[in-house]
Write a structure and sequence with these properties.
Blueprint: E1 3-9, H1 13-24, E2 28-34, H2 38-46, E3 52-54, H3 57-60, E4 66-69, H4 76-83, E5 92-95, H5 101-110, E6 118-119, E7 121-123, E8 144-147, H6 155-167, E9 171-174, H7 177-203, H8 208-212, H9 217-223, H10 230-239, H11 241-263, H12 267-290
Parallel strand pairs: 1-2, 1-4, 2-3, 4-5, 5-6, 8-9
Antiparallel strand pairs: 7-8
Helix pairs in contact: 4-5, 7-11
């Protein structure tokens, strides 16, 4: 299977890595990048992530075989509304958004007759870096990509999107939109809450500069993902608000429990909680390695 023309809207880590991986696999002939800033598109062009650039999404849609929307989820309604009148009858549209119920809803609203060719997707891969310069072809190798086809979705569109992600080296998994959002709230969105909150807590201290000068690997590892795009994570948190609030409450319960044990000087109970967490992590890592 070959894609003659791929359009990437939002040439950042996700969209750029998708383009590079497909190029490396020999699955795409021409990549057109669309974005808000010429500077990032020029970087993508210079690095070979894209072959052409455009600031006009409507013009870029002409003769496109596939479109990947790689913008923050908050921008997707505007993007879909802008491109819908210009999509070809067989143009397949997919996305890389971290939430799916909201993305599916706005696709239903704005894509109209083209909704059948829309395959919601979410690659479970990323780094704390952003922009075209952060993209690399191996990002998706061995990683899961979740697809969320709807009852109306064309089987052909699903096959093409599956084939594209498989060519990137990913393992494609199918979920329902609500199931996806509930899972991601726990394993992806909540860790970002924790990282942003911890870094914010330390940065707000009067002695922040001094204490951060004594930090080592533990803090760097824990707050690494707080270096991610604030715009992107603002949109994700708001889009998945209900599920994320429920998981924040569970996390706060655990924090309050540890605080109470510490206040009571209950060392045995603290150690038991730590051992429970440590063993859970070990089981998870063993299973992840096996999978």
């Amino acid at each position: 299977m070959s894609i003659n023309k791929l359009v990437i809207i939002g040439v950042g880590l996700i969209g750029g890595s998708f383009a590079l991986a497909l190029k490396k696999a020999g699955m795409v002939k021409r990549v057109v990048g669309v974005g808000r800033t010429r500077k990032n598109l020029n970087t993508a062009l210079k690095l070979g992530v894209i072959d052409e650039l455009s600031l006009d999404a409507a013009l870029a849609m002409r003769d496109a075989d596939m479109v990947l929307i790689g913008t923050p989820v908050g921008q997707m309604p505007g993007v879909m509304k802008a491109i819908a009148p210009h999509l070809g009858a067989k143009t397949i549209v997919t996305d890389g958004g971290s939430t799916k119920q909201d993305v599916v809803a706005c696709a239903r609203k704005y894509l109209g007759a083209h909704f059948a060719n829309f395959v919601p997707a979410h690659p479970m891969a990323g780094t704390e870096n952003s922009g075209a310069a952060a993209a690399f072809a191996e990002l998706y190798r061995g990683r899961k990509v979740i697809v969320v086809p709807q009852p109306e979705t064309s089987p052909r569109a699903v096959r093409v999107v599956r084939a594209a992600w498989t060519a990137c080296g990913a393992n494609v998994v199918r979920l329902r939109a609500r199931e996806h959002d509930e899972i991601l709230a726990a394993v992806s969105h909540l860790p970002h809450v924790a990282a942003f909150a911890l870094m914010g807590t330390l940065a707000n201290r009067k002695d922040a500069k001094r204490i951060l000068g004594f930090s080592a690997g533990g803090l760097r590892d824990t707050v690494r993902i707080s270096g991610s795009s604030p715009e992107m994570w603002r949109d994700i948190f708001l889009a998945n608000r209900s599920a994320l609030l429920a998981d924040i409450d569970k996390y706060l319960h655990e924090i309050k429990l540890l605080r109470a044990l510490l206040q009571r000087k209950d060392g045995d109970a603290l150690q038991a909680r730590f051992e429970h967490a440590r063993h859970a992590r070990e089981r998870w890592l063993v299973k992840a390695k096996r999978d």
